[in-house]
Amino acid sequence: MAMALSNSVPSACIICLSASNQFYPPSSPFKSLKPPLFWPWQKVILPVLSHVYTRVQVKMGPLTVSPMGFGTWAWGNQLLWGYQPSMDSQLQQVFNLAVENGINLFDTADSYGTGRLNGQSEKLLGKFIREFQGEKRIRDEIVIATKFAAYPWRLTSGQFVQACRASRDRMQIEQIGIGQLHWSTANYAPPQELALWNGLVAMYEKGLVKAVGVSNYGPKQLVKIHDYLKARGVPLCSAQVQFSLLSMGEDQMEIKNICDSLDIRLISYSPLGLGMLTGKYTPARLPQGPRGLLFKQILPGLKPLLVSLREIAEKRCKTIPQVAVNWCICKGTIPIPGVKTVKQAEENLGALGWRLSSSELLQLDYAAQESPQRMIQNIFQTNVLEETERLWGHKLKKTEIVGAEFYQLKEPGDSLNPAYANREKKREGWSNM
Questions:
Q1: DSSP H helical segments within 101-143, as ranges?
Q2: Which residues, 6 or more positions from 421, have their beta carbon under 8 angstroms from its beta carbon?
Q3: Exposed/middle/buried for 362, CB within 10 Å: 0-12, 13-18, 19+?
Q4: What separation, in Å, do the N-terminal and C-terminal C-alpha atoms of the chain show?
Q5: CA quadruple 34, 35, 37, 40: dihedral positive or negative?
Q6: What is the SS3 assignment for 43?
Q7: Which CDD domains match (predicted)?
């Protein structure tokens, strides 16, 4: 039941109606809400748009997921995100808050975690699922999408199946929601690519995963693997790509069109551009570590975009990150912003339950085009070796390309260290390779 706003209420502010007919102002903390602020099937009153918007769950192959998921790259990554085990209790609060408010999609990878913490993200997710105190039905609907790294010692389909089993064991779950290839090796090791594809087929046929997907695949390779899997009776459920207002290149648009035509759900990672679209940073105020080097190059050219984001956010009584994430949703993708704190989770949840207008979308699209800088794309997705070498300041060796996923370096030197590779191979049972 929609209710008219009185003259004393600013018309730009949004009030949400829960299933229990209780009103909650935008300032109300998520963690205190019982029942949740919204479930994907609930109705939300949008006074600004003067209509009732019904948010439905999203179909992803055989799965039903929330219109936004949460990424867990930071859960174990010390180099880029400053993870420490002392953060685990807050991460569990983040997980509980998300699930209690309708989020059931969590993205992870077997390579998330640095050094001795490799696989930590998967371990934490499994632990949080087991210890979740809510309804069993809600817990059972959680979908874990994990990615398997194309390490140079994973050369056969059997080795990828073993990697899948190892992830399942770390999480202590019977079946993984979506098993994904983390990146394509077509740019540097074409013969390994077929083993990746056959590995997906095998883990699907063995029932280790409910669905399969890919990450960091360019347009041509995406079509190829879709056709290859389809011929073997394995539907390609999802494709992850860096997709945001900072990543609107021709490749992204082509991949989006391919996904739409082939019934593949596009998952947009880094919807906030590693934090550049949060509004927190300026050329004079940069994050610590490797991200600061990247921000220093790109942030000065983002003024038109950040000005538009702030203008729309203020008009909507939203934050800049909420507007940026909502843009991804309005483009028909499932964003998976990363979360480390309860505050970040609350803010990301505020991106749901409303939609940008067509004029606001056009304004943001234009502002993004007017901003001269773009995010550097993943090295495995497109031919960006020259740009990557410019950023790193030296000619990349093949071992560097093979051993480190772009923006996800392990401890300094790990990717080139034979001892690291041998330790990982032994952990997976391939020490005699």
A1: 120-131, 136-140
A2: 151, 152, 153, 403
A3: exposed
A4: 65
A5: positive
A6: strand
A7: AKR_AtPLR-like
Q: Which amino acid is at 428?
A: E
Q: Are 321 and 343 in contact (CB under 8 A)?
A: no
- pLDDT, tens digit, for every residue of 125-148? 999 999 999 889 999 999 999 999
Which residues does residue 74 pair with via DSSP β-bridges, in sequence order? none
- Residue 288 CB: number of other CB atoms within 10 A? 8
pLDDT in tens, 120-131: 999 999 999 999
- Indicate the range of 186-200, 219-233, 285-299, 339-353 predicted with least confidence: 285-299
Whole-structure pTM value: 0.77
- Residue 373 has a pLDDT of 61
User: Quick one: tokens of 287?
Assistant: 């994050």
Two structure tokens written together for 279: 């509004």
Domains in the chain and their CATH numbers? 58-276+325-353 (3.20.20.100)
Active-site positions read 112
* Adjacent-strand bridge partners of 338: 71
**Residue pair 334/266 in contact by the 8 Å Cβ criterion:** yes
Q: Which amino acid is at 271?
A: P
